[in-house]
Amino acid sequence: LDRIKQRLEVHKLISSKRYSNDSKKAIGIDKGLATLLSCSSGNEYGENFSKLANAIVDKYGKRNANRQPYMSLRWQLNQQLEQLEKANQPLSKTALRKKRKLLGKLKNLEQNNIGRKSYEKSYRSAQETIRSFISCAINRMIEKEHPVVIAKEDLTFVKEKGVKSDNSRFARKMRKRLNSWTKGQLDERIEYLSSKNSIETHDVNPAYTSQYCSICGQHFEERYGSHHELTKCKKCGKMNANIAAAKNMLSRLTDEEITLYTPYKRVKEILDSRIKEA
Predict the structure, then answer these.
(1) Which of 20, 87, 117, 194 could pair with 199 as two cysteines, CB 3.0-4.6 Å apart?
(2) Number of structural domains found in the chain
(3) How sure is the predictor about 28, in pLDDT bands with cuts at 50, 70 and 90?
């Protein structure tokens, strides 16, 4: 039942592409802002995700900012109505005229300035655009990688293994803005599409996966690039930090010391001790 279009729809599945998997491949994936998914295989999927999300978030940020004065005015009018009803019992003719005037202004605001139908319809459409982008990226990953097991972190955009830098404030602001649009969607889509294609998913501990080299275990010296996607290891040289993180995710799948619930501080101690032992 589509209440917006005011019609009853009947949907029937005509065909569905089925993915057969006879491989024994396991991969690790790392989420990102500029690129949605980076895989331990070295491939990345969902390029320019942040551009799409930024455009949508900016659009609704401006739209909400334009609506804010009208929302404030509505609150003020409601306050005046409450004061009017408290002060005059029963209401005088002057008070009744003032009340009708206030109610007229409120009705005008609701109809012409802060209506919800058009806004909510547009908002849902924008969310579906994000959802479609995420689903397409995951499907491309499954079709190309043919994994039987996926090692992943908690992909809700609530927390990011950020790098302290001059623009870290911008990165935090960006993650906060994206969180309201993507929270839970990426994880839910991965779980659903993996289950549909008989792929196992396992959550692993994401602590410091993007800060240590996946080859030698050394701590990265620096992060650079337009989205801090590049890094440098003093032993192994330059590499993509997101792909290195995905490789570390995969190794955490069989790491007996670093389990899913190992505290972050303890994870750092283990990683540092491994560097000394090496």
Answers:
(1) 194
(2) 1
(3) very high
Q: Is residue 225 part of a domain?
A: yes
Predicted confidence at residue 137, as pLDDT, reads 94
User: Is residue 101, in this structure, part of any structural domain at all?
Assistant: no
Order of strands, sheet of 230-233, starting from the edge strand that comes earlier in the sequence: 222-224, 230-233, 237-240
- List pLDDT tens digits, range 201-242: 999 999 999 999 999 999 998 888 887 889 999 889 999 999
Which residue, 248, 227, 274, 5, is CA-closest to 124? 5
Own/partner pairs, 184-189, CB within 8 angstroms, 24+ separation: 184/156, 185/130, 185/131, 185/134, 186/31, 186/36, 186/134, 186/155, 186/156, 186/157, 187/152, 187/154, 187/155, 187/156, 189/131, 189/134, 189/135, 189/138
Q: Which of 192, 146, 132, 201 is nearest to 19 (CA)?
A: 146
- The answer as to whether 268 is a domain residue is yes
In terms of Cα–Cα distance, which of 224, 228, 207 is closest to 272? 207
